[in-house]
Every structure is written in C-alpha cells, then in structure tokens.
Design goal:
Helix content: 40-55%
Shape: globular
Strand content: 5-15%
Distance between the termini: 84 Å
Bound molecules: zinc ion
Structural class: mainly alpha
Order of helices and strands: EEHHEEEHEHHHH
Strand order of the largest sheet: 1-2
C-alpha cells in the first residue's frame, strides 16, 4: 500500500499578498479566492480595452468623463461655485478641482457612478494617488458599508458599450446645464 507523496509534503500557510490572510498560496503569492478575482478582473479589463479599440469608443469615454467630472464638482459646490476637497478640505472654485474616484477609473462599471466619486484637489487626486485611506474613512462616515459594496461591485463582470456611454453623456449634460443656469457657478475665477 502506497501512502503517496502528498502525505509527506507539509503545506504551510503564508499571508496572501492581496488580502493578507494566512492561506495556502494558489498562485503568484495569492490565496485561491484572491487569485480568481484578480484574474477575472484582468480578463474583464482586457476585453473592455479590446471593445474600446474595435468600436472606437475612446472619444465617447473622454466626453463621458468630462461631463461627469463637471457634474461631480458642481454637485458639491456652494452657490459661489466653491467646492471642498473630499479628502483634505482644501477649498477652491469648482473649475480648479478634479473628480476623484474611490475605485480606480479602469473599472468601467464604477467609472461614472456617483457613489464612487467626489471632488478632489490635484494634491489628493494626483500626488496622493486618490488619498484612498482618507477617501475610505470619509465615505464610510457618510454611508457605512459603502466601501465594501463598491469593492464587491468592482468584481462583477462589466462590459462597456456605446449605449451606456451615450446615456451617461446625455443624462449628465442635462443636469450640468441646469446647475450652471441656476447659480453663478459658471463663472471662472
Ligand atoms: Zn487572499
Ligand atoms: Zn485634497
């Protein structure tokens, strides 16, 4: 009777490089659930990049980004067009601010999602790469549980389409035009 090799191999748990939990390593330093999620996300992103190229959606994405960014900055601006950075409280005219994403823009399903976006100054959005620890803390204060929801939604398969992008552009264009009319937010300092 053979006992086989497996019985003599001691598998040791190591911390997964994604979730940090002690796990049997599945691939590239990751536990099995984390490896599956990451590989699915990578495949998803590659497929979306292919669709964007084949259907020539680059221009539509830029237009959707631009109008959605205006909307997010105007949404949180006061009547004079002044808006506070979500993660450091610096105040500036909305035209000088940026639209920051909690889950990175590469995840197309949350790229134009209001729950995922807040105004940020360049210091936080660019130089601190989104200032994510503070972003997490403040989103949670606003709406407990939201960061877990967004992190789960990030893992759902999502396909970018011309229709969805066109919808974003027309929906937010209407809102932005109304907001600009209502106040003197249009004024550029
Ligand atoms: Zn893991
Ligand atoms: Zn800031």
């Amino acid at each position: 009777m053979s006992r086989g090799y497996n019985s003599t191999i001691q598998r040791k748990k190591k911390p997964c490089k994604i979730c940090g939990r002690p796990s049997y390593i599945f691939s590239k330093g990751r536990c099995e659930p984390c490896a599956r999620v990451e590989d699915t996300l990578a495949r998803d992103e590659m497929e979306n990049e292919k669709i964007i190229q084949e259907e020539d959606l680059g221009g539509l994405i830029r237009d959707a980004d631009a109008i959605f960014s205006q909307y997010i900055r105007l949404k949180y601006a006061d009547k004079d067009g002044i808006v506070k950075c979500f993660t450091c409280d610096v105040k500036k005219h909305w035209t000088l601010m940026q639209c920051g994403h909690y889950i990175k823009r590469g995840h197309m399903g949350l790229r134009h999602d209001e729950r995922n976006c807040r105004p940020q100054d360049a210091g936080c959005n660019e130089y601190k790469d989104g200032n994510i620890p503070e972003f997490t803390k403040r989103l949670e204060l606003e709406s407990p549980g939201i960061t877990e929801i967004l992190n789960e939604e990030m893992r759902l398969p999502y396909k970018v389409t011309r229709e969805k992008l066109t919808q974003v552009i027309s929906y937010y264009s209407t809102l932005v035009n109304e907001m600009k009319k209502k106040t003197n937010k249009q004024q550029v300092l």
